[in-house]
Amino acid sequence: MADLKTLEMPKYGLSMTEGTVANWLVEPGQSFDKGQEVCEVETSKITNVFEAPFAATLYAVIAPKGTVLPVGAPMAVVGEAGATPAEVEAFVAALNGAKEPEPAVAAPAKAEAKAAPKAAPAPAPKAAATVAALAKSIDKPVAGATVVPAALKGETPEGVNASSRALRLAQKLGINLALVTGSGAEGRISVEDIEVAVRAAGGSVAAPAPAERAKVESHADDSAVPATPVARRLAQKLGVNLNDCRATGTQGRVCRDDVLLAAQKLGKLEDAPASVAAAVPQPAEDPVVTPMSGMRRAIGARLVQSKLEAPHFRLTTEIDMSRLNALRKEINADVPGVKISVNDLLIKAVAAALIKVPDVNVCYDAEQQAIVRYPDADISVAVALNGGLITPIVKAANRKSVTDISKEVVALVTKAKAGTLQPEEFQGGSFSISNLGMFGITQFDAIINPPQGAILAVGAAIERAVPVKGQVEIRPILTATLSCDHRVIDGALGAQFLKELKRFAEAPNLMLV
Amino acid sequence: MVMQLDKDQLLQAYRKMSEIRAFEERLHEENATGDIPGFIHLYTGEEAIAVGVCQNLLPTDYIGSTHRGHGHSIAKGCDIHGMMAEVFGKDAGVCRGKGGSMHIADLSKGMLGANGIVGGAPSLAIGAALTAKTLKNGGVAVSFTGDGGSNQGLVFEAMNMATVLQLPVIFIFENNGYGEGTGFDYAVGGRDITKRSSGFGMPSIRVDGTDFFAVYEAVSEAVDRARTGGGPTSIECMAYRWHGHFEGDPGLYRAKGEVAGLRKNHDPLKIFRDKVRDQIKASELDKIDAEVTAQVDDAVKQARAAAYPPAENLLADVYVSY
Amino acid sequence: MSTKSYREAIKDAIAQEMRLDDTVVVIGEDQRGGHGGHQPEVEALGGVLGVTKGLWTEFGSERVIDTPITESAIIGMAAGAAATGLRPVAELMFMDFFGVAFDGIYNQAAKFRYMFGGKAKAPLVVRGMVGAGFSAAGQHSQSPYHIFASVPGLKVVCPSTPYDAKGLLIASIRDDDPVMFCENKILYDMKGEVPDEPYTIPLGVANYTREGEDVTIIALGSLVHQANAAADRLAKDGITCDVIDPRTISPLDETAILESVAATGRVVIVDESAARCGFAHDVAALIASKGFDYLRAPIELVLPPHTPVPFSPALEKLWLPDAAKIEAAARKLMGA
Predict the structure, then answer these.
(1) Do C117 and B97 touch (CB under 8 A)?
(2) Does the structure show a pLDDT above 80 at B93?
(3) Do B308 and A105 touch (CB under 8 A)?
(4) Catalytic site residues of C?
(5) Which positions fall inside the Transketolase-like pyrimidine-binding domain (chain C) (predicted)?
């Protein structure tokens, strides 16, 4: 009988709680060495290669490519050579049957972790409330309630270690403190110790009297107390001294609410609302505060820079998409295994227009105070991610076929979502496209992706009635808005680019000639 | 040099290096299970430094360590079972599960503690050296600091104090090429730690930190100097860190194939084996490796089975008395 | 029993402990002074304000250790020495300098025992001056003891009289935990009755310097004397006060404070450490959470403004709490 075990989802870094099996690098039936790369594991941050912790044979993949597993969950069944399919099946069945899905080795540790806090509650800090309670009761004794047994009566001799308040209480009640055991530092007797001793000797101690809070009213001159004019008038009207008010207003001033609150406490507000504070509407639930991720902060910093430094102007054009849509249908129908999107064709059209109007295919070099013009159209495509966006680049789109562009976009988007884009795949680019058409947005402005000179914001193509050769026809019309950095691209130049783009998109055959 | 150590001493040194290797490589695997709380920083690749230093020390001598302290702890004689339990956060750990990987300490073994503060050891080590000097017990103290830690101001203050007071202390700088994820070449101005220490007026030397014998010899001379009232020494040991700064560090600052090259060409254990080939049969060293592997296996098994600290320990041992 | 100054009481405590215990050493800048100068055999300073003068003559350079101006290494070395068998009394000169020296105490000594599972101790005393009133300006007048007290593992002591200074310092040196011993510089010349023989005052026991029934005033260090003066003036008008000097901030004698508050129901807390997040706010929070039901009026805080300590005596006088401000706060609580 071969010895079988599992490979478990590893933990990379403190924050990792789950991972995705991105790819298996070893096939079932294959053997691997210790340290050999067995599979790729993807986390929210990074893709890592999982190295075999020991040499074995892979018998069964429990988590196929794409499966998301918590840390420690089994990914595959492995073992020494010679296991029969029946053995493997039985092992997998046993795994599935186990109520605790966690790996067997980890189970005892986890169980202890749960049990530990229950073992014994942390000792509570020594309560001082009862001390205060007793002392208060002595201060305002309830008649007949405190009874000191004769056994404790007497005069306290010199040198007994007791707190100042305990000594005074003992004197008042005629207790000999030499008969009381102290619980404080170096055996010091506290008021609480006296209480305990009185009770232990059969006596009783008065219950604490309810707190009596004096309504202290100030009669001092309040003309110098900082207050808002409204508050000062209201205070005068209600007969409230501003010295009795809290100052919660701006600049440490007493404000209207402070006066109302003080008036209410002092009983000077006959028909005031029950609570001033209650009048303030409270939000039903606290807002959720999430610290910004590194990506969010980077987006913020770059776009603020762009918005602050690059003088944006915008040009909008409408493109009739009839022929581009038709071309797309034709290509998808004629070429097996290819499924290009409108976006792929637009990338191609933009590339063609950039080559035609090369002065738009530029970046701004602030350091050298120069305009950098690129020979190829390296087009950054904005991809929305959970909690951010990234702009992978279709390089030299002008020299690529539409099917190549399509395949490349799919690959880049997949990598972007998996977090495995290499820096050179998203840093650089000569022009950007942002497309929100799939969300039904018809038109919008985009912020330039610095140091590029321009970005194209692409909306959805919607069917509109348009005049064609004197007739009204229904055509899919797409609105495209070009944002330009006026430092490097002037209005006429931007307009010329849009004209070329419109020409290529409306007559895609021109891209071939 | 090889000849100055007898066979037992050589076997002992190899055993310690093997223990460090097995402990760290096993932690690399155990950490991936998710059962180890907190940060782990592995010492693999630098074994010859810790062992080359500590083979010169007596149990009553003190060392202060870094956040990458498992190797120093093992070399100074800390209990491997207790260390493993500590890393797992268990009550049976050397620090009863209250310090963890970054704070393994055992003062009874002269281990003043791994230290979560980069550059934390030198000032504590001069304190231990002051104790030895004041009590005139012939003791020495050693601080371990990385190339990253060598840039901390307190390290300079400690070196200055050590020469001013002529303290019996040895500053070991483990230059493994990276401070966290930043290269030594970038972060250490002047790119030579020994020049800095010699500026404070102490003998300073740079040695190959992957060669046990080079480290042992330099430290042996420094210990003799310290014990006889000759004051401090600084030794920069050039070595390599095989793993990331911490476990989970993807190591994006490394060249492709860098680590594979280190394992092949700069393995302190292999280098040791080559140097003792004429005196010690490989099978004897293999036997030590097997024993050590079994020992670490057992330590993991016991650590996993051990109990977590009870809740009442939360409030224990903040003060001696309060 | 003889009359001694606060300064002499402190030196007395160190000297007596050094005679009793060979592991007690003094570490600091200019503890002797004159090393490397032109009078090599003279005890030139004895601490910058002469507090430890005479110790070097009696104990020599091996136990009275002059260091470079290197506070960070002084404290780090003292922490290492304490963990390995000495009982260092390290001097930071002005506690303000903790800003360049905190790692050895904050991350190291204070945490050894807990982090190492109860198997280590760091019997270390860090002495230093605190307090405004000396025209020493923003970097030599602060009282950062509230920061020390927020660190678990540290004990914090603030003596207000020569008698307390000696008894508390001997207790601190004998204590097995690290202690921050905060000497108020304007008290150095204050004289009082001090026993000649060694004695200890336990850490964590407050002292009532006045006893009364109407208001509880809590103050530390030199402000205890301002609080006493205020209480004496109030007594003439029939308002009597408990004046409580906690003497140590960590541990804090909560019992003594709460017992008094329970009886008076009115509290004035006086402090110079901070206008925000300071000692007064900590005590106010203690009273609000454990003694709220016994308060008859809001707690009054008499604090400096939230500014650095100013240099000019004219401004510094405005900055510091004093007897008049304490008295006004107490009268406000009495509604008068």
Answers:
(1) yes
(2) yes
(3) no
(4) 140
(5) 4-190
User: Count of CB atoms within 10 A of residue B123's CB?
Assistant: 33
pLDDT at A255 over 90: no
Q: How far apart are CA C47 and CA C55, in angstroms?
A: 10
- Strand stretches in C205-288, DSSP E: 207-210, 215-218, 241-245, 248-250, 267-270
| C33-40, long-range: CB < 8 A, 24+ apart | C33/C66, C35/C66
Task: Choose the most confident range, by mean pLDDT, from A102-106, A115-119, A286-290, C162-166.
Answer: C162-166
- The pair phi, psi for residue C138, each rounded to 5°, is -65, -25
pLDDT by residue (tens digit) across B42-89? 999 999 999 999 999 999 999 999 999 999 999 999 999 999 999 999
Residue B72 phi, psi (nearest 5): -65, -40
How many residues are present in chain B?
A: 322
Beta strand A18-24 with A47-51 is unpaired
Give A98's pLDDT tier (boundaries 50, 70, 90): low
Write the residue in B113, B141, B160 that is nearest to C116 by C-beta. Answer: B113
Model confidence over B274-318: pLDDT tens digits?
999 999 999 999 999 999 999 999 999 999 999 999 999 999 999
Query: What is chain C's alpha carbon radius of gyration, rounded to the nearest angstrom?
Result: 20
Which of A136, A193, A217 to substitute to test the interface with C, most C CBs within 10 Å?
Answer: A136
Cβ-defined contact of C65 to B130 (cutoff 8 Å): yes
The answer to whether the beta carbons of residues B77 and B59 sit under 8 Å apart is yes
Of all residues in chain A, the percent with pLDDT exceeding 70 is 84
- How many beta-carbon contacts under 8 Å exist across A and C? 83
Q: Do B33 and A123 touch (CB under 8 A)?
A: no
State residue C77's pLDDT score: 97
Give the integer Cα–Cα distance in Å for A437 and A425. Answer: 24
Out of B62, B98, B134, whose CB is closest to C25?
B134
Q: What mean pLDDT do residues A325-348 have?
A: 89
- What are the chain B neighbours of A34 within 8 Å (beta carbons)? none
Domains of chain A: 4-113 (2.40.50.100), 129-200 (4.10.320.10), 229-278 (4.10.320), 294-512 (3.30.559.10)
Alpha-carbon gap, residue A420 to A47, rounded angstroms? 6
- Provide the CATH number for the domain formed by C207-333 in this structure: 3.40.50.920
CB C208 within 8 A of CB C242: yes
Cross-chain Cβ contact C72/B153 below 8 Å: yes
Q: Are A499 and A507 in contact (CB under 8 A)?
A: no
CATH class of B2-315: alpha beta
Q: Which other chains touch chain A, taking contact as 3+ CB pairs less than 8 Å apart?
A: B, C
What's the pLDDT tens digit per position in A148-179? 888 899 999 988 999 999 999 999 999 999 99
Given the structure tokens 């303000």, which residue do they identify? C96
pTM (2 d.p.)? 0.66
From C166's Cα to the closest Cα of chain B, the distance in A is 20
Say whether residue C333 is in contact with chain A using an 8 A CB cutoff: yes
- pLDDT (tens digit per residue) in A123-150: 433 333 344 343 443 444 344 478 888 8
Could you tell me the residue ranges of all domains in chain B?
2-315
Asked if C296 lies within 8 A of A129 by C-beta distance, the reply is no
| Candidate list A486, A490, A491, A507, residue with the active-site label | A486
Secondary structure (3-state) at A505: helix
* Runs of H (alpha helix) within B47-152: 47-54, 70-75, 80-87, 121-135
Of A8, A11, A110, the CB nearest to B31: A11
Closest residue, chain A, to B315 (C-alpha): A122
Say yes or no: B239 contacts chain C, CB-CB below 8 A. no
CATH class of C2-194: alpha beta
Q: Which residue has the tokens 């001997």?
A: C170
Q: Which residue of C has its CA nearest to B96?
A: C117
**Does C328 reach chain A within 8 Å, measured CB to CB?**
no
